[in-house]
Amino acid sequence: MRRLDLPVWVALVVMLAAGWSLLRTTGARTVEFADTQGSLRLRYPAGWLRVPGSNALLEVQDPLSGAPVATTLLAHRGPKAADQSLDQAAREGAFDHSQQLPMYRVLRQRPMRLGGRDAVAVDYAYIADPHESVLTAERLPVVMRGTEVVVFVDQTVYRIDLRAAAAVSDRARAQFEGILREVHL
Amino acid sequence: MSLPGPTSVPDRGASLPRRSIWIAQTLTIAGLVAYVVLLQALAPALQEPGRRAGVAVGLGLALVPAALWLILFYVQDAREPEPLGYVLRVALAGAVLGGAVVLPIVERVFGSAAWINAGPLSSLLGSILIIGALQEFCVYLAVRFTVYESDEFDEVADGVTYGTAAGIGLAAMLNLWFVTAGPSINPGPAAIRIVVFALGHSAFGGVLGYFLGLAKIYRRPERAVQGFVLAAVLNGLFTYFLREVTQSGLTYKPWNGLVLAAAVAIAVTVVLVRREHAKA
Q1: Which of A52, A120, A123, B30 has the highest CB neighbour number within 10 Å of its CB?
Q2: Torsion angle of the four alpha carbons B106, B110, B112, B113, in this order, in degrees rounded to the nearest 10
Q3: Is the predicted pLDDT of residue A99 greater than 80, yes or no?
Q4: Helices (H), ranges, chain A
């Protein structure tokens, strides 16, 4: 029976080892971000770049998203108001976005779990201009899709948000799901 | 697809092909496609029934393919009996190993979420070398350590039966995880995805089982590792191309996945039937 089982075990080990090592060298690496003044920890793809001068707790962009507007991951931390519910916090976030993002609209709001806690996800869309600083540009404005996840940790509200051009939002959404699975609160 | 045939005539196992298995396989493919079509008509009535009822609907959807295959197998097998207890045991082993080995290792140890959509190369390599290898290893274990040494496993076709059963069990567990992981499911696309998994994993389980049959009946142990590697590669390619054909920009096209899965299942069944006839 050794002649039957041993080669299969060896093949499995070789395949897993090859898969693991190849994935480490083909862009599957991640970088950890930890909120030094809070409990949030998450991992994002290693190739994503920090946005200098950002006011957010974390703002990183995928330089290789293939869209005219970069896929952006944002994390914000803020205080939780007394008796504030997750739905209220999500609505407040949506209101803030509506003041900043052109043609912003909420597509869907849904409950979910994040890092073992109850959370609310808000799917939204807006219009971004890839050439905001110039009056004349040949490119059309870009439809963006995003999801903001709101979660409470004690008296803190965390908002984790991923925005991507609609043309690449399927891939971005899958990446976001991966990022959310690695969130620790 | 080219599968090796037997190279010498054994003392036992040189029986006629077991028609019941192939009839059950064919009816299962047809039945699962019909099930998906039926579900599309019923989907509006099953939509958004509330979280608890939604989970119940999802569990029902996830287990139907396995139940259908087992029923068809049982009915067909009445003429050429294969112990149903063994078949159930193998299917259960496939499900348990899928839940205990595949899901936690793929998700936790190898962090599939980080690379599964990270790019074509990562996705393809990960699908073959990690997902395919682990899933087919579970199918191998499920057959190897439940029924392989039994006297009931006395034909190459028995390997196909038990391999398919292990694949169906594995698919049932993956589907259970799928329907319970999210906050809600859309019954129409979910039913297609569930059937796609069932068709795919039963096909790859059948391939691996066929090789295990060759390994045992013809005393060719090297066939086991050949079958394992082939099934893992087929599984990984299927996993990769399934994503490619169902995702198109903003649009999710589940029917493309069903076509792919049905084509793979039919192709595997035809190839294995031809091998069986060649043997006879």
Answers
A1: A120
A2: 120
A3: yes
A4: 2-24, 86-100, 169-181
How much is the pTM? 0.66
Assign B182 a pLDDT band (cuts: 50, 70, 90): low
Q: A81: alpha, beta or left, given left = phi > 0 and alpha = psi -120 to 50?
A: beta
Least confident of B22-31, B76-85, B268-277: B76-85
- Across chain B, mean pLDDT equals 81
Q: Please give the residue of chain A at the shortest CA–CA distance from B223.
A: A4
Q: Domain range spanning residue B244?
A: 19-279
**For residue B263, is it within any domain?**
yes
Number of domains in chain B: 1
Alpha carbon of B54: minimum distance to chain A alpha carbons (Å): 14
In a domain, B33, yes or no: yes
Determine whether the interchain pair A5/B144 forms a contact, defined as Cβ–Cβ distance below 8 Å.
yes
pLDDT of residue A45: 84
CB-CB neighbours of A135 under 10 Å: 5
Q: Among A53-57, B66-70, B113-117, B210-214, whose mean pLDDT is lowest?
A: B113-117
CB-CB under 8 Å, A19 with B111:
no
The pair of three-digit structure tokens given for residue B40, joined into one six-digit string: 């599309």
**Is B3 among the domain residues?**
no
Q: Please give the structure tokens belonging to residue A175.
A: 């990446």
* Chain A, chain B: beta-carbon pairs less than 8 Å apart: 104
Q: Is residue B5, in this structure, part of any structural domain at all?
A: no
Q: Report domain A31-181's class.
A: alpha beta
Q: For residue B65, which of B201, B193, B185, B172 has the smallest C-alpha distance? A: B172
